[in-house]
């Protein structure tokens, strides 16, 4: 009888402990975090793309850009496995702003593409956007807006972002100088690992400095980005036969000018 009562007390104690203890959750693995980010990015893309005037005229050009992006993405595990989505859009004004969303969806300004002279420049632009994805800058902005109560807690439940949530001064693509600096460091590594001359990133910032109002970046910040890029590139060992401009790019450049 005493053993029976002792057993009952033990069972009752275990029930109390189990009720009083909050369930513990194992931390997300890196692959699970990446998967969640991609799901969020794909959801945001649905309404974001409705706000862009997507150019859908040249499939050969899109295939070329997708292959170039894939070559760059292979150097980083956070972006190497997701299918590449490339979109060329025509801005409402003469702007060179490019965008990217988790899930490897890249949106290149037609005006920017028309300004390019070398393949490593477009590679640099794509690598920079990959840096923003890897460093979670867009989703970080989204989470900050949620924490401030500006956006609902979950965008994945059918909540659509507004025009200002995308393009406004406090929107999800409004990155700080620190964000851009982080992306530059990642982008130079991506270029280097993929065999592209990383000085394409230097050219990218020089072009932005000379673009005037077409550049989405502040002029003072651009000088900092240029200096940061030069500093990082100078520490790299020179590549043997780095990619600067290919014959395929020259042919695609002709296609770009006709869009």
By secondary-structure content and strand pairing, the structural class works out as: mainly alpha
As residue ranges, the low-confidence spans are: 1-24
Main sheet: strand order = 1-2-4-3
**What is the general shape?**
globular
Largest sheet: number of strands, sense, barrel closure: 4 strands, mixed
Helix content: 55-70%
Please work out how many helical segments DSSP would assign: 11
Percent strand: 5-15%
- What is the tally of beta strands? 4
Q: Overall mean pLDDT score?
A: 85
How far is the first residue's CA from the last residue's CA? 90 Å
* Backbone CA Rg: 23 Å
Give the SSE string. Answer: HHEHEEEHHHHHHHH
What does this structure look like?
By secondary structure, the chain is mainly α. It has helices at 2-20, 30-48, 59-73, 110-114, 119-134, 137-147, 163-167, 177-193, 199-210, 219-234, 247-258, and strands at residues 54-55, 85-89, 99-101, 105-109. A 4-stranded mixed beta sheet has the order 1-2-4-3. Strand 3 (99-101) and strand 4 form a beta hairpin. The chain is globular. Residues 1-24 have low confidence and may be disordered.
């Amino acid at each position: 009888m005493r053993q029976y009562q002792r057993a009952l007390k033990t069972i009752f104690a275990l029930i109390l402990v189990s009720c009083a203890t909050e369930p513990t959750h194992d931390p997300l693995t890196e692959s699970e975090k990446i998967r969640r980010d991609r799901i969020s990015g794909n959801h945001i893309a649905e309404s974001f793309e409705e706000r862009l005037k997507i150019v859908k005229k040249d499939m050969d050009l899109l295939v070329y850009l997708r292959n170039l992006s894939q070559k760059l993405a292979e150097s980083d595990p956070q972006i190497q496995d997701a299918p590449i989505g490339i979109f060329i859009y025509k801005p409402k004004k003469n702007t060179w702003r490019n965008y990217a969303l988790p899930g490897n969806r890249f949106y290149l300004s037609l005006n920017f593409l028309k300004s390019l002279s070398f393949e490593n420049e477009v590679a640099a632009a794509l690598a920079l956007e990959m840096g923003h994805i890897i460093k979670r800058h867009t989703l970080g902005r989204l989470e900050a807006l949620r924490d401030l109560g500006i956006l609902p807690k979950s965008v994945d439940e059918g909540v659509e972002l507004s025009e200002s949530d995308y393009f406004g001064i406090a929107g999800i693509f409004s990155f700080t100088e620190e964000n851009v600096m982080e992306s530059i460091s990642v982008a130079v590594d991506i270029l280097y690992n993929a065999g592209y001359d990383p000085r394409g990133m230097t050219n990218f910032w020089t072009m932005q400095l000379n673009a005037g109002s077409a550049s989405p970046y502040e002029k003072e910040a651009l000088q900092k980005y240029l200096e940061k890029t030069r500093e990082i590139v100078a520490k790299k060992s020179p590549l043997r036969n780095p990619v600067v401009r290919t014959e395929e790019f020259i042919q695609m450049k002709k296609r770009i000018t006709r869009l």
